[in-house]
């Protein structure tokens, strides 16, 4: 079994996942509401929204979609969880922190802690909470 996170956006899913694919060196598979079998029942103004996207990074997946207003529960934002990245060295932690936190809000700067060589907590510009954790820096020995 594998457990994968699934995020929901309100029209920013494609921009967010292109950003994440760039930052995480992943590959995307994306389908829009206007391309699905039920496209005729989706209002035309929502055809470009993402029905499903999958970001593959190695054997890991992060998935998401946009909401389709009027076709379910109103969007209330992403809350109550964080995407946690476990990285192998400080340079990679620093690279990811700089890239993903750009234009976001930082709750805890990337720094040494009692449990990790480096740790950071921030919300990106799309409203997604991230944690970066580097337990051991292999380059430090």
From TrEMBL:
<protein>
    <submittedName>
        <fullName>VOC family protein</fullName>
    </submittedName>
</protein>
<dbReference type="Pfam" id="PF00903">
    <property type="entry name" value="Glyoxalase"/>
</dbReference>
<dbReference type="InterPro" id="IPR029068">
    <property type="entry name" value="Glyas_Bleomycin-R_OHBP_Dase"/>
</dbReference>
<dbReference type="InterPro" id="IPR004360">
    <property type="entry name" value="Glyas_Fos-R_dOase_dom"/>
</dbReference>
<feature type="domain" description="Glyoxalase/fosfomycin resistance/dioxygenase">
    <location>
        <begin position="3"/>
        <end position="132"/>
    </location>
</feature>
<dbReference type="InterPro" id="IPR028973">
    <property type="entry name" value="PhnB-like"/>
</dbReference>
């Amino acid at each position: 079994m594998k457990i994968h996170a699934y995020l929901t956006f309100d029209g920013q899913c494609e921009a967010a996942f292109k950003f994440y694919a760039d930052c995480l060196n992943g590959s995307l598979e994306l389908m829009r509401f206007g391309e699905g079998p039920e496209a005729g029942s989706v209002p035309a103004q929502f055809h470009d929204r993402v029905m499903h996207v999958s970001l593959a990074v190695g054997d890991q997946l992060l998935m998401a979609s946009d909401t389709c207003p009027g076709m379910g529960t109103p969007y209330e934002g992403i809350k109550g969880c964080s995407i946690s990245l476990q990285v192998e060295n400080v340079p990679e932690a620093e690279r990811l922190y700089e890239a993903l936190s750009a234009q976001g809000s930082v709750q805890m700067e990337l720094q040494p802690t009692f449990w990790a060589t480096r740790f950071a907590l921030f919300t990106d510009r799309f409203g997604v909470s991230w944690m970066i954790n580097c337990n051991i820096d292999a380059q430090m020995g």
